[in-house]
Design goal:
The structure holds two protein chains of two kinds. By secondary structure, chain A is mostly helical. Chain A folds into two domains: 230 residues, no CATH class; 82 residues, D-Maltodextrin-Binding Protein, domain 2, CATH 3.40.190. Helices cover 63% and strands 5% of the residues of chain A. Chain A has 14 helices and four strands. In chain A, helix 2 runs parallel beside helix 9, helix 6 runs antiparallel to helix 9 and helix 8 crosses helix 10. The longest helix of chain A has 31 residues. In chain B, helix 3 packs across helix 4, helix 3 packs parallel to helix 5 and helix 8 crosses helix 9. Chain B is α/β, with parallel strands linked by helices. Chain B starts with a strand and ends in a 7-residue tail after the last helix. Classes of the chains: A mainly alpha, B alpha/beta. Chains A and B meet through helix 1 and helix 7 of A and helix 2, helix 3 and helix 4 of B. The structure holds adenosine-5'-triphosphate and magnesium ion. Magnesium ion (MG) binds next to helix 1 of chain B.
Chain lengths: 353, 250
């Protein structure tokens, strides 16, 4: 039965449209929603260029053998593509090693001396590569030459692992800041009280905020993911459907938590504080930048219940492993639980005046 | 004839901590009347009207609107009331038409959006952002939102405060048209001329109580020896006579 709405859509649709219109008419909000993923992707392209293993950077110092010995050694090392020779001003060695400008300093002699920091992987690699070249040059005969079978293990680089984490973090940030600010603003304008005075259903208002938040989810996920594929050669094995479902579940969960966070705040300062307090533990614990396996085993069950952990883990499984949704049922369950809890709690606690 | 009352409230009490904002206030408004609540700042007008609107729970007393109570008929009352609040700012970045569509969507009956625009004389402004409207236009839009459900009873809290004389007159015309269509109005105001012109009856409220209630003419006849403002006597004189103070503090 059609209800007379005088030419307007139903309240849920009109409330959603109202929120969307306000959002797209706020140039700053638009800018940050779309610019953040792009900036993030650009930063990653610069930080993690897509190239084969980089050569190690080595310096040959002047040793006991004088300049001739050093020159001979330099000639031997230059011939190897895996080694890049650098020259340093005298006294700059320690600093160059610390900054990672060079990985290894070779002092000619019999035997030569290697100066490096063994806690750095690249320095250890440099030592092995240089030692191999020098030993062979000095007449070592190898019993055999191993055959190399190089495998490109997809998605095993740090950047491949990081990107889904950053996408998860963006989904969290957009949902919570977006809803938190717009709702607090409406409360400060006494607009929520005006709605309360009308026959509007409270759950329609809250649901509309969530729905409107979902509209711009696609670019939020697609832009950084596309960048990963095109600029970083990142493998995306998951189906679009699985990635969509996981992202949507995450966006709903963080939207609902955003509603809850904004349910009492009366000022922008108040909501900012609440959001930071809610998000900070997840930035640290949920394994966006480094694996949450670094935290003690006792903390793991709690960490897995955090919505950002669930979202980031599920995104990694779906994007990198190409698994179907069946593989992320526990994570999806966590996200759905947060959505239901956040929405129901927000509906009860919400301050309309 | 109980059904003839649009508003009935008896012995309303509302406290904020130690402060008694509404202190045993009673009055009744028959259907079709325009009724005004007058009183100085802090008299308890807004508190009273918000209790009636079901936005504040009274600490004591009875409220009946259109023969219904909030406890038993909240949904129906919300559909049948039109409410304009003292401090609401509508969303600046929605257009006039979008704002009206939004409010209209909450109601299951009422005029079309175009009709509402025409009634408040904002048809030519329908595509303007709310933030770009003048104060008078914003106030008319706010009243239009209150009219979106074709209400039987309209609450207006200081609808003309801060408006220039021309905008006030436009709003008065709008309210008279609504009343002529059978609607009941309960409004608050600080303007005595407005109350005298618009209201069939007024209640003068001071410190949370009704200290006088009657038609403006009768109140002036009884208490308003022409002393203060207008030579023929005014509600201002009535208030001064009753309380020894002016309606508007300084
Ligand atoms: N939320 C609140 N908390 C505490 N006190 C309040 C609150 N709202 C109103 N009051 C107090 O209750 C009294 C009545 O306020 P109310 O807003 O009803 O007055 P009013 O007649 O509408 O005044 P005005 O003409 O200034 O709008 C005032 O003393 C006011 O300070
Ligand atoms: Mg008031």
């Amino acid at each position: 039965m059609a209800v007379d709405r005088g030419g307007a859509h139903g309240p849920l649709v009109e409330l959603t449209l109202a929120r969307l219109r306000q959002f797209v008419r706020e140039p700053e909000a638009i800018f940050w929603t779309f610019a953040f993923p792009i900036l993030m992707a650009v930063a990653m392209t610069v930080a993690f260029p897509n190239r084969a293993a980089a050569p190690v950077r080595v310096v040959v110092a002047d040793g006991d053998g004088g300049p001739d010995a050093a020159a001979a050694m330099r000639r031997a090392l230059t011939a190897t593509p895996a080694i890049t020779l650098r020259t340093l001003a005298p006294g700059a060695e320690a600093r160059a090693l610390r900054e990672g400008e060079v990985h290894l300093i070779v002092v000619p002699g019999t035997p030569p001396t290697y100066r490096y920091d063994p806690s750095r992987d690249e320095s250890r690699v440099a030592r092995l590569v240089v030692d191999d070249v020098l030993q062979r040059g000095a007449g070592r005969s190898d019993p055999w030459q191993a055959r190399d079978e190089t495998l490109q293990v997809p998605g095993s680089r740090y950047v491949d692992w990081l990107l889904p984490g950053l996408i998860g973090m963006t989904i969290m940030g957009t949902g919570m800041w977006g809803l938190g600010f717009s709702i607090t603003q409406a409360r400060m304008q006494h607009l929520l009280k005006r709605f309360l005075a009308s026959p509007m259903q409270r759950r329609d208002y809250l649901a509309a905020q969530l729905l409107a938040r979902m509209v711009f989810l696609a670019p939020e996920v697609a832009i950084p993911l596309g960048f990963g594929v095109i600029a970083l050669g990142m493998p995306v094995h998951g189906s679009v459907a699985a990635i969509t479902v996981v992202s949507a579940a995450g966006a709903l969960a963080f939207g609902a938590i955003g509603l809850l966070a904004a349910s009492r705040a009366r000022t922008i300062e108040g909501i900012s504080g609440v959001l930071n307090v809610v998000m900070l533990p997840m930035w640290m614990l949920s394994g966006v930048f480094f694996s949450s396996a670094n935290y003690p085993a006792a903390a793991q069950p709690a960490i897995r219940l955090l919505p950002l952990t669930a979202l980031v883990d599920a995104l990694r499984v779906v994007v990198l492993d190409g698994s179907g949704l069946g593989a992320v049922v526990p994570e999806l369950a966590v996200l759905v639980a947060w959505t239901v809890f956040g929405f129901a709690a927000a509906l009860r606690l919400f301050r309309w005046r | 004839m109980n059904n003839g009352w649009a508003v009935r409230c008896e012995r309303l009490v509302k406290r904020y901590g130690d402060l008694v904002a509404v202190n045993g206030l009673s009055f009744a408004v028959p259907r079709g009347e325009c009724f005004g609540l007058l009183g100085p700042n802090g008299a308890g007008k807004t508190t009273t009207i918000e209790v009636l609107e079901g936005l504040l729970a009274p600490d004591d007393g009875l409220v009946e609107l259109l023969g219904l109570t909030w406890a038993s008929h909240e949904r129906e009352l919300r559909q049948r009331l039109g409410i304009q609040l003292q401090e609401t700012q509508l969303s600046e970045k929605l257009t006039v038409r979008e704002t009206l569509r939004l409010f209209r969507s909450f109601y299951t009956r009422g005029p079309s959006v175009d009709d509402l625009l025409a009634r408040v004389d904002l048809t030519s402004k329908d595509a303007s952002w709310v933030g770009k409207l003048s104060g008078g236009q914003k106030q008319r839009l706010s009243v239009a939102c209150a009219l979106a459900g074709d209400p039987d009873l309209l609450f207006l809290d200081e609808p003309t405060t801060g408006l220039d004389p021309q905008s006030r007159r436009q709003l008065w015309d709008l309210l008279r048209a609504y009343q002529a269509g059978g609607g009941t109005i309960l409004l608050t105001t600080h303007y005595m001329d407005e109350a005298q012109l618009l209201c069939d009856r007024v209640a003068i409220v001071d410190r949370g109580r009704v200290i006088a209630i009657d038609t403006p003419a009768a109140l002036i006849a009884a208490h308003g020896a022409p002393r203060v403002v207008a030579p023929e006597g005014s509600l201002e004189d009535v208030f001064v006579a009753l309380t020894g103070r002016h309606l508007r503090e300084e």
